[in-house]
């Protein structure tokens, strides 16, 4: 506690407060641009900090990290265009809310969710960093593969009009994820002889194409049939009913997000998907999911913020970057001649505790700055759709081109955008495809590692207690609808039918 108080004393100096505020504003502004997430923001600003002292630089980076995550969820909610992969889930319920005139409430739920998840996650950094880091190392390849399969099955089972369409969408994503060089053998897969595809398709290009371009083409196809009606902004604050539905998801989010963030090779994608599935299972308003359920925004956004805190645990205590932002921050540490790892808390305790204290400050600034701005952001929806979607396509193109500064990525984005349009036309949910692209290559790598360790035996995939437990959960998810048919119906369900017959 003394070290944390010293960290607050350092972080609350006027210079460091200003840097935290600049980081939050820059992160939010850059996160709002489709395809330009917090990792790219930190990478672009890395050269700017060469002349800065390390503590100030990392305080700014922390602000950019959280600001970028919130900015990404803002475009997900309002424009159905995720700014980065952790914000993909926010589009699923947030965008229908915005279309119903509840964009400001969705943004407020996201902002408070980020604040709650981040604060709880940062408290857990202070209390559990050594413990979590110690046990995260023991999680092996079979466990990670099982968790990724759980993410595939859980999301495809609850999204879309049917499971078949969900699995078809997942197959499309897994196919796109296979494009490029095999990491273990170096063989080209699905590249059709093109050197541009040898490095694979970047997730930013796929996410922007399927969401932004696909949505823009879908709207353009129906624009002449439906006259433009401005979407109402709605009230800027959450009602009592909204708070009653969101406070539990806000508190549940960190329980899912923090452990996954701390797992090496983790990140915010898996826990946000699992949080969404959890909230749908537990909600009393299941019929609203897919049409704008506020729980589907509050839970995953709190989870994403807590996952970011868990990521910092692994990066600071083990020197293992589990996300792109953590990798850039690790490069920044090395730029200053500092090596994250078990001895970091001893050798650079002043820097570490100032960074942790700045997380509390940055999250508070994020809430204070963005909660009043929610109605202002929501007014983006009043822009006539031809201008709005032209702007979205412009920024999507900028974001896709900025990934590798390659014109081929732009062509690829529009081709995959046509695929996204086709998926909307035939009722295939977009989300499983995104999961397949993000997690497919990682799942394949963990599966092959597991099989190598067991000399090709399939028992290598189930040789740990955690993996067995996860596979049991997967079987329950797959076969529960079948078992449900054979379970006796509760007597309460029969009463209304009898009354109806009598009437």
Compact summary:
It contains 21 helices and two strands. It has helices at 2-11, 14-32, 38-45, 54-79, 88-99, 103-136, 141-158, 163-178, 203-222, 240-262, 269-282, 295-318, 324-335, 344-347, 349-370, 374-378, 385-404, 407-425, 431-453, 465-486, 491-502; strands spanning 180-181, 188-189. The longest helix is centred in the N-terminal third of the chain and has 34 residues, at 103-136.
Please write out the topology:
Elements: H1 2-11, H2 14-32, H3 38-45, H4 54-79, H5 88-99, H6 103-136, H7 141-158, H8 163-178, E1 180-181, E2 188-189, H9 203-222, H10 240-262, H11 269-282, H12 295-318, H13 324-335, H14 344-347, H15 349-370, H16 374-378, H17 385-404, H18 407-425, H19 431-453, H20 465-486, H21 491-502
Antiparallel strand pairs: 1-2
List keywords for this structure.
mainly alpha, two-stranded antiparallel ribbon, 503 residues, disordered C terminus, 21 helices
The percentage helix is over 70%
Mean pLDDT: 77
How far apart are the termini? 69 Å
What order do the SSEs take from the amino end to the carboxyl end, as H and E? HHHHHHHHEEHHHHHHHHHHHHH
Number of helices: 21
Radius of gyration: 23 Å
**Estimated share of beta-strand residues:** under 5%
Low-pLDDT regions:
492-503
Work out the number of β strands: 2
Structural class: mainly alpha
Q: Could you describe the largest sheet, including whether it forms a barrel?
A: 2 strands, antiparallel
- Widest sheet, order of strands: 1-2
Shape: globular
């Amino acid at each position: 506690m003394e070290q944390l108080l010293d960290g607050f004393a350092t972080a609350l100096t006027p210079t460091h407060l200003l840097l935290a505020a600049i980081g939050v504003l820059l992160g939010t502004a850059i996160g709002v641009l489709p395809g330009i997430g917090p990792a790219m923001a930190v990478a672009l600003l890395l050269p700017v900090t060469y002349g800065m002292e390390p503590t100030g630089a990392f305080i700014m980076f922390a602000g950019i990290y959280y600001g970028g995550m919130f900015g990404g969820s803002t475009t997900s909610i309002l424009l159905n265009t995720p700014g980065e992969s952790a914000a993909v889930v926010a589009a699923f319920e947030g965008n229908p809310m915005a279309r119903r005139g509840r964009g400001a409430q969705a943004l407020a739920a996201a902002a408070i969710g980020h604040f709650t998840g981040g604060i709880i996650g940062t408290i857990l950094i202070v209390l559990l960093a050594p413990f979590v880091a110690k046990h995260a190392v023991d999680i092996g390849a079979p466990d990670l593969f099982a968790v990724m399969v759980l993410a595939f099955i859980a999301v495809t089972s609850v999204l879309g009009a049917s499971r078949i369409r969900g699995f078809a969408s997942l197959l499309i994503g897994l196919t796109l994820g296979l494009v490029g060089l095999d990491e273990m053998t170096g063989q080209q897969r699905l590249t059709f002889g093109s050197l541009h595809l040898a490095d694979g398709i970047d997730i930013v290009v796929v996410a922007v194409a399927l969401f932004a371009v696909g949505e823009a083409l879908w709207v353009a196809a129906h624009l002449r049939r439906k006259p433009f009606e401005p979407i109402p902004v709605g009230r800027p604050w959450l009602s009592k009913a909204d708070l009653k539905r969101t406070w539990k998801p806000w508190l549940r989010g960190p329980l899912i997000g923090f452990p996954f963030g701390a797992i090496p090779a983790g990140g915010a994608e898996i826990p946000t998907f699992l949080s969404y599935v959890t909230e749908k299972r537990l909600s009393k308003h299941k019929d609203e999911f897919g049409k704008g359920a506020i729980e589907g925004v509050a839970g995953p956004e709190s989870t994403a913020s807590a996952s970011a805190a868990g990521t910092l645990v692994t990066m600071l205590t083990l020197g293992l970057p589990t996300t792109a932002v953590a990798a850039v921050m690790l490069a920044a540490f090395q730029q200053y001649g500092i090596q994250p790892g078990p001895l970091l808390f001893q050798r650079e305790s002043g820097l570490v505790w100032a960074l942790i204290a700045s997380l509390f400050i940055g999250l508070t600034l994020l809430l204070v700055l963005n909660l009043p701005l929610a109605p202002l952001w929501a007014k983006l929806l009043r822009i006539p759709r031809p201008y709005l979607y032209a702007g979205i396509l412009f920024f999507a193109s900028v974001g896709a081109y900025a990934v590798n500064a390659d014109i081929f990525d732009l062509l690829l984005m529009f081709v995959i955008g046509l695929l996204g349009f086709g998926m909307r036309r035939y009722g295939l949910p977009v989300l499983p495809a995104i999961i397949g692209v993000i997690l497919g290559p990682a799942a394949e790598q963990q599966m092959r590692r597991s099989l190598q360790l067991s000399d090709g035996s399939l028992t290598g995939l189930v040789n740990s207690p955690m993996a067995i437990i996860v596979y049991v959960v997967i079987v329950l998810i797959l076969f529960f609808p079948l078992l449900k048919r054979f379970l006796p119906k509760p007597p309460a369900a029969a009463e209304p039918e009898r009354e109806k017959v009598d009437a």
